[in-house]
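Supplementary Note 2. Why include the ligand at all?

Several targets in our set were suspected to adopt different conformations when bound, so apo predictions alone were not considered sufficient. For every target with a known small-molecule partner we therefore ran a joint prediction. The input for CA2 is given below.
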Amino acid sequence: MPNTVFVLNGPNLNLLGLREPAVYGSTTLADVERQAKAAGSRLGLEVDFRQTNHEGVLVDWIHEARETAAGIVINPGAYTHTSIALHDAIKAVALPVIELHISNVFARESFRHHSYVSPAASGVMCGFGTYGYTLALEALANIVATRNATSSS
Ligand code: CA2
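The joint prediction is reproduced in token form.
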């Protein structure tokens, strides 16, 4: 089993720490990448960290993960609330996928309360700021370890 996990980030998350600090905090995406890689190394996971503003690129990366990764943490950004394509891609790859949001989407506008990704995900994390990436990686590591133990017994 590969010990690589993908951490995928969707549209506008390249602006993290640079705009709207009241909502998303002042940590930049480069800081989050460093924190995620440090958490990964504690957990025995190689973190492949990526960001794109394009829906189809996220779909391509989810397909790529099928061949090379043990699981995915994904912050799909606003595509969370619009993308049947992401729902279908996650269903199709049959990997553990943790959906992650920096903000508590349920305490925000009602259009953020629905997710097309959640029904296809193994679990959902939201509202813990950028620390959520570390929490999501811990949850994913636990799922991967349990699967590996079951498949080798
Ligand atoms: O809370 C999250 O992580 C979100 O996925 C962030 C998305 C939003 O559409 C989701 O409803 C919740 C937006 C990402 C935009 O990120 C920015 C960061 C800094 C400044 C402006 C946008």
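The mean pLDDT is 96. Residues 4-148 form a domain with the Rossmann fold fold (CATH 3.40.50.9100). Comparable summaries for the other entries are listed in the accompanying table.
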